[in-house]
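Many introductory courses stop at the sequence. We go one step further.
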Amino acid sequence: MTREDLADRLNHLDPGAGICFKKSDLKALFGGSSFSNDVLRVIEDFALEHRCTFLSQEHGRDLPRFEKDDVY
């Protein structure tokens, strides 16, 4: 998957829907050996560009996820 593929998937999500990803897949997409603050900021900015929220450490969930905002 490329960033363009991810952008397309995020743009087509219904409000409130989400997509989970393995941390290793996100690291490969956004370039980084770990989830540093800089990499997280890049991912969060990418999510905002596509009207989503990135949740990386939600209680009870192991996988980071993008969630489509329900307000446009």
